[in-house]
Design goal:
By secondary structure, the protein is of the alpha+beta class. The chain contains 2 helices and 5 strands; from the N terminus they run H-H-E-E-E-E-E. The chain has helices spanning about 1-55, 60-75, and strands at about 80-85, 90-95, 95-110, 110-120, 125-134. A hairpin with a 2-residue loop joins strand 3 and strand 4. The radius of gyration is 35 Å and the shape is rod-shaped. The chain starts with a helix and ends with a strand.
């Protein structure tokens, strides 16, 4: 009886060992796949965020640049006329070179017309230069 009991236990232990090693292998494979999924998800998230950031940095059009200037001037009164060059020009200030648009605004203040020329940066939409033209 002891031999039958021992043979049973050996068979059971071998079967458990086979099942256990198979489970460990499956768990290792699953962990490896999960790590790969995380890496792929990380690359995808990085790519999408870089694309969104680059899209936000995209250059503004000449029409958008004129609208920015108009909105800035409307805070101080009405605008009688405006214009903008549709081609970009380069502007140097403090040793830095910017690409953007030249334009102008005409407004009336105290029954006198004031003419302004401006330069707007193509990337940021900031008004970099403003001159009063007589």
């Amino acid at each position: 009886m002891k031999q039958a009991y021992t043979a049973y236990h050996k068979e059971r232990n071998n079967l458990l060992l086979m099942l256990f090693s198979s489970t460990i292998y499956k768990k290792r494979k699953r962990v490896t796949n999960m790590k790969l999924k995380h890496v792929v998800a990380g690359f995808a998230a990085g790519f999408v965020s870089a694309y969104i950031i680059e899209k936000k940095k995209a250059a503004i059009s000449s029409g958008e640049a004129l609208q920015i200037a108009k909105n800035a001037f409307k805070k101080n009164g009405t605008i009688d006329g405006s214009w903008i060059h549709t081609t970009t020009k380069f502007f140097e200030q403090n040793g830095l070179t910017f690409e953007g648009y030249n334009g102008g605004i005409i407004r009336t203040v105290d029954n006198l017309q004031e003419h302004y020329e401006f330069f707007i940066d193509k990337r940021s939409g900031a008004i970099l230069d403003l001159k009063t033209v007589s």
